[in-house]
Structure formats: C-alpha cells, structure tokens
Amino acid sequence: MTEIPTAPRLGLATKVSYGVGSVASGVGSVALSTAVINYYLVSVVGLRPAVVGIVIMISLVVDAVLDPLIGRWSDTFRSRLGRRHPFMYASTIPIGLCTVLLWRHPAWISAAAMPLYVFTVLVVLRIAGGVYQIPSDSLAPELAPDYHERTTLISWRWFFGLVGSVLLTVLLQGVFLKRDAANPLGQNNPAGYASFGVAAAVIGVACILISALATQRYVPQLNSPPKRRQSARESMREIFAVLSNASLLAIMGSGLVSGVASGLGSSLQNFMSYDFWELKPQVIALMTLAVAPASFIGIVAAPLLSRALDKKRTMMTVFTLSVFSGVVPVSLRLLGLLPPNSSWVIPVVLTADLFVTIALGITGFVIVSSMVADVVEDAAVKTGVRAEGLLFAANGLLPKFTTAIGILLGNMMLEMVHFPETAQAGRLVAVDPAIMRHLALLQLPVGAVLNLVAIGVLIFYRIDRSTHEANLEALRLGAMVTEPPLATIGGPPVTDPTAIVT
Prior knowledge:
Helices cover 73% and strands 0% of the residues. The protein has 19 helices and no strands. It is globular, with a radius of gyration of 22 Å. Residues 422-428 and 479-502 have low confidence and may be disordered.
C-alpha cells in the first residue's frame, strides 16, 4: 500500500527556491559539457580525439551504472532530514572540488598520465552530480502531485537550469576566454578555463545549498513509505517490476536513440562554432544571450500547450519542429546559400535559429520531464511501490550509455576527416574549411535521423490526464493493481533533453 500525504501548498517563493537548484544543473551542464571538455582536451591540452572520446565514454558508462543505485538508495533511505536532502548536502564538497580540478590540472601531471587524471576527476564529478541531481529531481512529483501543477513546477526548474547554463556560457566565452600575446585565439587560453572552473564551482555549490535548505521544511509532508526488510532477490524483483512500466520503457527507448544524437552533437559543437562558422568566443557569448528570452517563452508555453493539447501530443510536435529548425543554418551553408563567415549575416542567422530551436526544445523538455514524473504514480498503482529516485535514475541510464557512444562516434568523425594535429595544443590558425565541410556532411544527416526516430518512439507513451487522475484516486483508496511482467508487455522497450535540440 502506498500512502499519499497531504500535498504541500507551494507558494511562488518555494517554486523559485526549488527551481534555483537547477542553476547548479545548468552550471554543471556547461562545466561537464562534452562540447567544452572535448574541445579543451583536444585543442588546448593536446590529447588525440580518439583518446578523449574513450575517456569521456567510459566515465559516462561508470556514471550510468551507478545512477540507478543512487536512485534506489535515496528511495529507501530514512533520516530526520528526509529521504532526499542528505544526498543533496553530501554532494556539495566533491562537486566543488572536482569542478576546480577538472579545469586546473596540476603542473606535475605528465602528458602520458593526463588521460587517467581526467578520467578520475570526471568519474568522481559525474557521480557527485548524480548524488545531487537524482534526489533533487525526485522531489518534483512529491511536491506537486497534480497533473498540471507539476508541469508548472518543472517549468521553474527548467527556467533556472537555463539561467545557469546561459550565465556560465557567457562567463566562459565572453569573460574568461580572452586573447593575449600567448593565445591569439582566445578559446585556447588555458588560464581562462581555470578561472571558469572556479566560478562554476562556487555558483553551483551555492545554488545546491539554497535549494536544499529552502525545501527542507517540506520533508514532513513528503512521501516516506515504511522501511521494509527485503532480501536481495526481493529487491531485484521489485526494481524489475518498477522498471517494467510501459510508459517508462517508451521514454527510455527514446533516450536510447536520442543519446547517440546528443553525444554526437555535443562532441562536435565547439569545433563547429570555432572552425566551421569561425565564431569568436565573445560573439558566441552575445549569441547565447538569446537563450534566455527563448527559454522563457518555452517555459511559459509548456503548461499552456499541455493543458490545451495534452502532454504527449504537444511534446512530439514541438520536438519535431525543433529538429528541423536546428539543421537549417548548416544546410544553407552546405548548399552555398549563405554569405562568407566574415559577414554580419552569419551571427544574425545563427542567433535567430538558436532562438527558435531553444524555444521549441525547452517547451518539449519541460513537458517530457513532467511525463516522467507522471510515471511515478502509474508505477506505484501497478507495483505498490513509490520509487521516484529509481525512475528518474533509470530514465537517464540508457541515454548515458548511448551518449557515450555518440561522443566516441563524433570524435571518430574528427579522425575520419583528418582533423590536423597542428590544430591541437594551442593552435594559432583556423582549420582548413574543406575539412570542416566534410565533418558537417557526416554529422548533419546522422544526427537529424536519430533525433526523429527518438521522437517517434514516444508514441508508445500511455499516460494522459485521465489516466493520471485515476492513478491518484487508486492510490488514495489504496487499490493496487498488479501489472504483467515485462515479457508480456507490448510495444518497444528519455531522455537527455539536450539530445533533441543538439
């Protein structure tokens, strides 16, 4: 039996405070961004693309394996501080320390030892990020059980996540990556990356603490199922039953495909910005400012559109439009329909495309996050177990594996186009445009097709408003229905949201 306590009454201050925690996620999305890390390790540190791809891939696989354990642990953990908050507090020190170390490696680290150093720091940082992110995300369905209110709450979450991402991107590109006598290309300035790491650590840790402390008072009103003794076999059967939910499998299946596209796009993103479009870091910083109003539009639109059209229909529509929007500039360049990169038209076109793509994508991201939250009650009705942490961790499990594959694929594309060794370790000149054109011809069709397939898989998601309200009523009445085992469920088995926008 799953008991639902009286839902907390969330005022604006609480929604904002909970949302502020996602500033840390936005900061982490930049500080741990494959786009930034990949470019830094290849073009500044001087590691081979294939080596970097393998290091990032393995760190993501380790993280993916441990995330469900973190989610399960937070579901079953009991303390006077609640189930989730102790994890959030514990994450702060390793997140702060490893963020600094990732971008400011000790001088005594040799070139041969650098891959091992980066791998170690990345693994610890990703695990610490999961220790914060999974319990923090798991609070959403508990704080807002209502079908539409949770979409609004998650909208605040996405809004502040984008605030953190934009803030760190602007600081990195517009402030820290400055040209000097030793670094005529500002994006190759190692001191700038070191300063960026310190700023990311301070901002991220501060926002984690603000969010955790602000929501601490709601712990008595959150779900706290009684502690149970289980054998390892019983625990595994319960986990299997929770993860057999058909709607969850649809989301995970989508993430399986979109993860490859996300990894591919993120691994090549900065190479495309700096070497295909020949943008300066400061221009990128100005372009990034367009993300703020675009994300605001998406966040406001998500609850309105989901009420009018329901969640799944809205999400699939806006994601499809965002995919087509995102490929327009590169397609126009490959067709010879854009002026040279030196023209002022290029930043304008790219900024306009970024605005539209982000507005559409964020609308979809908010809604799909709310759809994941709706699986919590659906799974609880069918299994008798509330497992928010396990569900949110499982949602990110397969995409992390496939993102790792996509990253390796992107870096192998760099090898395939013979990205020159002279373009690494503090290069002073741009890469041959023919090489970058070849790279774009490889990436563009593969990424677009993968993203469209990922959207199509979500057609198998089954929860709508009436289903959710029936689930809430069943939980209130204590009526639990047993779902068939995984082998009898029809349909194919999401998501790192950035996968589709990228």
